[in-house]
Amino acid sequence: MERIAFVEKLRLKFPGDESLIFKDLSVSFDKGEKVLLLGPSGCGKSTLLQVLSGLIPHSIEVPMKAKELESPSSWGYVFQDPDSQFCMPFADEEIAFVLENLSVPKQQMNERIHNHIRQVGLHLDDIHTSIDTLSGGMKQRLAIASVLALEPEVIFLDEPTAMLDPVGTKEIWDVLKEIGKDKTVIIVEHKIDHVLEFIERIVLFNDNGQIIADGPKDIILSLYKNKMKEHGIWFPGVWDEYIHDHAPIREQREFNDGGPIMQMQGFRGFRKKEEKIMVEELQIHSGEWIVIRGENGAGKSTLLHALMQFIKTNGYYELMGTSIKKVKNLTDNMTFVFQNPEFQFVANSVYEEIAYSLRIDKKPPQEIEERVHALLEVFHLTAHRDKHPFQLSMGQKRRLSVAASIVKEKKIILLDEPTFGQDSKNTFALLEWFEEYRKRGITVIMVTHDDHISKNFATRIWTVKDGKVISDEKISKQLAFLETEVLSL
Amino acid sequence: MNVSSAETWLHKINPSLKLFVLIVLCMVALFIKDLNYMINVTMGVLLLFLCFSGHPLNRILLLSIPFCFIFLSTSSAMILFGQGETLWFKWGLISITEESFMRGLLVGFRALLFAVLGLTFSLTTRPVNLFYSLMQQVKLKPKYAYSFMAALRLIPIMLEEFQTIRNAMRVRGVERKKGIRSLYFKMKAYSIPLLSGSIRRAHRIAVAMEAKRFSDTRNRTYYYEFGFSKNDHGFILYFVILLLAGLYLSVQFPYLSI
Question: Among candidates B126, B106, B114, B113, which has minimal Cα distance to B10?
């Protein structure tokens, strides 16, 4: 087999870090191979892609050294974030930008743009469509189309579906399978359900950026299952195993004391004077775990925003027996955890971040100390208490934002995709904490695309479609678990 | 916000040329000392703005509100407190003289002219077209042109993030803080995540651009090619005639005698 990209004895260190991210790493890739790089977050998989493509050190200046290094002569790179890989405002201009870089004559451009857009199944009425109006999945397709314009031999994929919902994820992988057939494809991805059918080889990394296994996918998957579990990798069947190990502990308790804590009737939410969400009638009790489901753009997040009064609403909406118009400090009873935890940080250290709400209320220092300490323990942040919140890893940031939001023991906690982009370890840990709070009578309302969560944790599922809550089903948990038990037998 | 518009002949003018002509006109306006002449020129530019920008009339009128304000504020300051010989009206600090009145109007019209020229330009020129034309006609380095275009994309994203941060701050109870110190605190709480987000995003876009083989060589091809056409001749001719005819009319038929 012809080698198309390889690196030998790579050493690389990020400025400011204490240790090397790679120490004498060697790996090579053959022409036509489809390879998946797997490993815990922060182990340097994306960095390796950037080295192999030559982005490091040419575009990103990072000190590195390698005995030998060969980048493919033509390659394309699809990045994670659909919002930060375009430099032009319109779809056709973005692909034209690539063609201009390659000095393709103007006369050929139009035809090639149409071709590439068709190849990735991006159905636009007009190729001159503003990129801002595209959905996340469509943006990633456009990114793939502009990579195709490079006519690459090798395609590097750096978690191309990390920001997409399940439908978008599947669509992207369908496209990639089609266009990647005759190319070398090197992939970094955490959600590997759809990737597995496509790849033939897996390279497995550990926390220290060392390769612990490299070989055909079936062998790696069967031999290294425990290692993957330990590192929080989403290998297939991780949920089944988790449920198998944890199912019997749970019990369902009803909190019907004191009537509903939230009531809505003919409740509507508006964005820019347009009605975006409508609730006919719903009542919420304490101790419920409500999952809000629905397609992208159906109005799930808008519903949370309406409950939180971020947007204009009308209709009947009552919180703890008080009409919402008379509720003065909504945030005393209800809290919201945003998708991007960074937006919520206000303090200079992890400790102060959690203490912040308590300090505003002028609680006695003794009490603050106790409560913050307890939360730091629960959320495994004690070791980082003096760090700046921005210095934490993504998983830690998420945990901190949850800890800081619930320090005041709010009755209701709203979450927007709290497990997005988290590895399996963090996801399960977060879900267990929410379950713990729920058992104490706190209501959890979350938007999530993850069917496993609705199946295994929710006590109630709302489905939102076209700006309306169209169904509300209560689930007996015991039953859900029994079913899985039966199925796995 | 939807700011689409119909295409008029003003849209078809070479953007670099348009920019150049309008800058020259601004310079010329600095040296016009005659009020009648100034009024004529301003009327000519206003005609262009009102009739040929291709935008619906209600949007044009909405955009005109701040410019009426500019006109009134700049001219009134000069009119009410300027110096002069022929006194028309005096009340306390306020003294209106003939000279100050004329000078006030001149300054007001000049400000109005600048505003209208700028607005006409921005309403009829897509930034992308301007930068493509600047690369082709003025030989602007692609490095700068594309960085500007990429930066323009960041603005709406930043606005959205700002809104999210505001909601987040409300949840955390920051809005409830009062006083000067809280103002400093809020500024920090808003600007740090906003800036860190933008810097990270800008860096990512830059890397993505280089991954698409962007380099600063001059022999790139262009998706939009700009040359010169009859419209450009018409555009220049319009202003030449405006300046000459305006001058002639101001001498022959002055509105105000100075």
Answer: B126
Q: Give A 259-318 residues with CB within 8 A of chain B.
A: 305, 308, 310
Which residues sit opposite A6 in a β-bridge? A28, A70
Task: Please report, as a single letter, which amino acid is at residue A213.
Answer: A
Q: Is A125 exposed, middle or buried (0-12, 13-18, 19+ CB in 10 A)?
A: exposed
* Residue B29 to residue B7: CA distance in whole angstroms: 28
Which residue range is the domain that position B22 belongs to? 15-131+228-252
Chain A residues whose CB is inside 8 A of the B176 CB are 329, 360
Domain count, chain B: 2
Nearest to A316 by CA among A306, A301, A304: A306
| Residue B175, in any domain of the structure | yes
Rounded CA-CA distance B163/A305 in Å is 12
A94-98, A231-235, A256-260, A485-489: least confidently modelled range: A485-489
In a domain, B97, yes or no: yes
Q: Which residues of B touch A346 (CB under 8 A)?
A: 169, 172, 174, 185, 189
Residues B159 and B180 in one domain: yes
H/E segment holding residue A284? strand A274-284
B170 and B195 share a domain? yes
* Helix H or strand E encompassing A472: strand A468-474
> Tokens for A387?
């760090």
Measured between CB atoms, does B128 come within 8 Å of chain A?
A: yes
Of B164, B177, B204, the CB nearest to A81: B204
Q: A480 pLDDT exceeds 60?
A: no
Query: Band of the pLDDT at A478, cuts 50, 70, 90?
Result: low
**pLDDT tens digit sequence for A326-379:** 888 788 889 999 887 888 888 888 998 999 888 888 889 999 999 999 889 888
| Residue A284 neighbours by CB distance under 10 Å | 17
Nearest to B128 among A81, A89, A98 (CB): A89
Q: By the CB < 8 Å criterion, does A340 face chain B? A: yes
| A273 pLDDT more than 90 | no
Around Cβ A100, how many Cβ atoms within 10 Å? Answer: 23
CB atoms within 10 A of CB A44: 24
User: Closest to A360 (Cβ–Cβ): which among B173, B211, B220?
Assistant: B173
B residues 62-91 near A, CB within 8 Å? none
The predicted pLDDT at position B4 comes to: 67
Query: Which residue among A101, A336, A343 places its CB closest to the CB of B214?
Result: A101
Based on the domain organization, do B150 and B57 belong to the same domain?
no
Q: Is B205 found in the same domain as B159?
A: yes
How distant, in Å, are the alpha carbons of A333, A368, A445 from that of A412? 6, 21, 8
Q: How many CB pairs under 8 A join A and B?
A: 135
Q: Are residues B123 and B176 in the same domain?
A: no
**A345–B210 C-beta distance less than 8 A:** no
Q: Are residues B181 and B65 in the same domain?
A: no
Which backbone phi and psi does A325 adopt, to 5 degrees? -70, -25
Token pair 């050294």 is at which residue?
A: A65
Query: Is B220 contained in some domain?
Result: no
Within-domain flag for B258: no
ipTM of the complex as predicted: 0.85
- Tell me, yes or no, whether B25 and B66 share the same domain: yes
For the stretch B13-30, pLDDT in tens is 999 999 999 999 999 999
Q: Which of B141, B217, B214 is nearest to A150 (CA)?
A: B214
Whole-model pTM: value is 0.84
| Domain match, B178 and B246 both | no
**Greatest extent of chain B over all pairs of C-alpha atoms, in Å:** 70
Residue of B nearest to A151 (CA): B212
Would you state the pLDDT for residue A252? 55
Q: How far is residue B21's CA from residue B100's CA, in Å, rounded to a whole number?
A: 31
